[in-house]
Each structure stands twice: as C-alpha cells, then as structure tokens.
Amino acid sequence: MDLKLKVAIMTDVHGNAPALRAVLNDIDSQPGIEHTYCLGDMIAIGPDTNQVLDILFSRQDISMILGNHEDAVLAVLAGREPGSPGTERVHHFWVAKCIEPRFASALRQLPRKLVREHGDQRLLLLHYHENDGRLQAVDREPSVERLEAMYCNSGAQAVCFGHHHPRHFFRSPARVYVNPGSLGCYHLPLARYAVLHCGSGRVTVEMKEIPYENRDFLASYERLHVPAADFIIRTFHGNQRPASR
User: Fold this and answer.
1) Residue 35 burial (CB count, 10 A)
2) Which pLDDT tens digits describe the chain residue by residue (245 residues)?
3) CA angle 128, 143, 181 (to 5 degrees)
4) What number of other Cβ atoms are within 10 A of residue 112's Cβ?
5) Cα 239–210–202 angle (5° rounding)?
6) 26 - beta bridge partners?
7) CA–CA–CA angle 103, 10, 74 (5° rounding)
8) Within a 10 A sphere around the Cβ of 126, how many other Cβ atoms?
9) What is the distance between the alpha carbons of residues 195 and 191, in angstroms, rounded to a whole number?
10) What residues does 134 pair with on adjacent strands?
11) Three-class SS of residue 188?
C-alpha cells in the first residue's frame, strides 16, 4: 500500500520558539508533507509567545486552532477574568501584557476545531475533548473504548488532539486517535510532533522527537522574570537547568 499524502500534527508549543523551529526544520526537510496543523496552546508557560506566533502566522502551510491558554489570555485582553487560579492567573496576565496587539487580533480569528480531508481520509482536529463547547477534565488513563464512545459518530478516520501533554495513540477498527504530546513542554530537550500518512482507506501515524538546544531557552525564564518560573521549569521541563546541561 502506497500512502503518499502526509500531514504534520503539532500541539502545545507553549511559548517555546527553539523547539518549534526544530520541528519546522524537520518538517521542511521531508518531502510530501502537504500541510501542518497546530492544535492550540501556542502561547503561555514558555516566554516566547511573540516569537512563536510570528513563526506560525508567517507561514501559509500551517492551520491553527485555539487552546485554553489562548482563551485565557484573550479574556484578560477583553477585560474579563481568565478563569485560571492562583499563579496561573498571574502568568496569564503577564502573557497578556507581553503579547503584541497584532497577534492578539490574529488569535481572535482562529477556530476552535477543524475538519479537513486529505486523500480519502477525514481528520477531526481539536484541542481536547469537549462537552457542550467546554473542555472536559483531563482523562489521565484514556482508552480506545472511551474515545470511541465520544467520537463514534464523528465521521472522522483520525481524531487529533492535545492539551494533555503526554503522548497518546489508539486505533479502533474505524479510526485512529493521536495526541503527539506537547511540542514545547517535555522533560528532555526533544520537541515532539506526529506525521499522518493518509490514503487508500487507512491512516498510519509516525511519532517524531526532534532534539534541540534548550539551555538559553531555560535561562530566559529567569532573565525575563517569568511569573512562577521555578514551578514551570520543575513541572513542565523536568527540572532541567541551564547549569546542569
């Protein structure tokens, strides 16, 4: 079987520009990838919100959707509460203060989900599972049975999502479920994404991990006075420290 149509799936860049550049360089080096989808949470946690959005919005071959961190920051910019607690709320106010107005305007135009067809395969792309338009609580032990119960009537052959940072892959007789893992938040200096091969009645999935240099990125948390920097580095970057690398 010759599966020639390829698309790239990334999610949860979280303000990590060097990780994003590493992934895009890898995508650009491969023949046949016809489009890239970014499944929300491009911003926050990492300090590179403007750099990340500049990279993403400058390309014509990337489609994006909103995640909960975009929702929170846009709420702050609209004069509303972000709905995030404690230090996360402080962090969202900091990101809202830093974001360039042109990027905030562009984010407001993005959808919350996409349905796209590549070859004979239909892809459903969303940030995470929803109930009545609201994100569900994170399922920390997902299963193909629970996913099928949610998406059995979706008409999609691939359901792609993020939000929960670990990597997930499930296959039912009808479809695949793909979470490539957070691109920008990981305990190793590796940026993750997935390549879907679509066609001939089947979707196959290739999970990718791309090494990148992250010492200056980690040092920038302190340099830029990112709120809750120590907590973020411990929780989202495996407590990697520039001095220990």
Assistant:
1) 16
2) 444 689 999 999 999 999 999 999 999 999 889 999 999 999 999 999 999 999 999 999 999 999 999 999 999 999 999 999 999 999 999 999 999 999 999 999 999 999 999 988 999 999 999 998 899 999 999 999 999 999 999 999 999 999 999 999 999 999 999 999 999 999 999 999 999 999 878 899 999 999 999 999 999 999 999 999 999 999 999 999 876 54
3) 45
4) 15
5) 120
6) none
7) 30
8) 23
9) 13
10) 131
11) coil
Residue 91 · residue 112 · CB < 8 Å: no
Name the pTM for this structure: 0.95
Paired tokens of 3:
């599966």
The structure tokens listed for 124 are 């459903």
Report the interhelical angle of 17-28 vs 49-57 (nearest 10°). 20
**Percent of the chain as helix, strand, coil, to the nearest 5:** 35, 25, 40
In one letter, which amino acid is 159? V
